[in-house]
From TrEMBL:
One of its GO terms (molecular function) is ATP binding. This is Rod shape-determining protein Mbl. Its main location: cytoplasm. It is found in: Cytoplasm. Keywords: ATP-binding, Cell shape, Cytoplasm, Nucleotide-binding. The lineage of its organism: Bacteria, Pseudomonadati, Nitrospinota/Tectimicrobiota group, Candidatus Tectimicrobiota, Candidatus Entotheonellia. The keyword ATP-binding applies. GO terms for cellular component: cytoplasm. Belongs to the FtsA/MreB family. Gene3D superfamilies: 3.30.420.40. One of its GO terms (biological process) is regulation of cell shape. It comes from Candidatus Entotheonella gemina. The keyword Nucleotide-binding applies. InterPro entries: ATPase_NBD, Heat_shock_70_CS, MreB, MreB_MamK-like.
Amino acid sequence: MGKYLTTDLAINLGTANTVIYTRRQGVVAHEPSVVAMQERLNGSRVALHVGQAAKAMIGRTSEQVSIVRPLHEGAVADCDLAQMMLQHCLQKAGSRKKLHSLRFVLGVPAQCTAIERRAVIEAARAAGARGVYLIYEPLAVALGEGLDIREPYGRMIVDIGGGTTNVSVVSVGGLVYNKTLLQGGEAMDEAIIAALKRKYHLDIGIQTAEQLKIELGNVLPHCTPQRLQVEGTDAAAHTPCLQQVTSHDIRDALIDSIHTIIDAMREVMGQTTFHRI
Ligand SMILES: Nc1ncnc2c1ncn2[C@@H]1O[C@H](COP(=O)(O)OP(=O)(O)OP(=O)(O)O)[C@@H](O)[C@H]1O
Ligand SMILES: [Mg+2]
């Protein structure tokens, strides 16, 4: 097939989000890695929604509908769901699969096992890829940041994802060291839920917690306080209520997660020897 008919797609199939990038158009799809499955009366399951539409259903589903994720802790947990996720994103990207030969470059976590790598390749091929190339995510991050990874300098990459946090050192085109924490942004959302329940006896959902993290999240000691009014449920009375939440509340909730990441960075620094010339 002629070169001009080949579409090269860079894909991050992540625990929280799936992102597709092309050299010509940039990011062409960015969807939550979430599928809403409905259980039929005969016991079979069918996908109702994928991506953004499925994420919007979290906390609003009936007993027959469950929200499932194709990935767990950065690795493919269900190959069929991962294929569905990729196909959905390809559709969003408007890829004309029938005319184009698709080549995927997929990021994989540094701690990925051979079985997990095979699962990614299988899902990609089932989604229509003719060629599948894998790259360690920390190297992809470094390249994306415009770093010359061939240089003989250690560069620390800290990638806080949805389900994992990776602290890596890259040098001379390779991965020198990697430490993976099995917690990322979603654990922070959970920490916010727990903290608001403790402090205000307020129950909020995971999406409100994520919104608070993104809008108020700041762990610097002297940040200008900001506040947001959120809707939740009074944990004791089980009645709807409104509560002002401040950036200090969010800082208190996130501080342990941030210290865990800083400790991991210190450990990686300690394990990596840099030679100054
Ligand atoms: N502005 C922001 N401030 C804080 N957190 C954010 C912000 N934007 C996104 N996030 C969080 O980043 C996380 C998603 O990051 P990302 O898309 O890199 O994860 P992922 O690659 O899918 O997951 P993983 O790398 O663990 O497989 C979510 O928890 C989201 O809430
Ligand atoms: Mg990631």
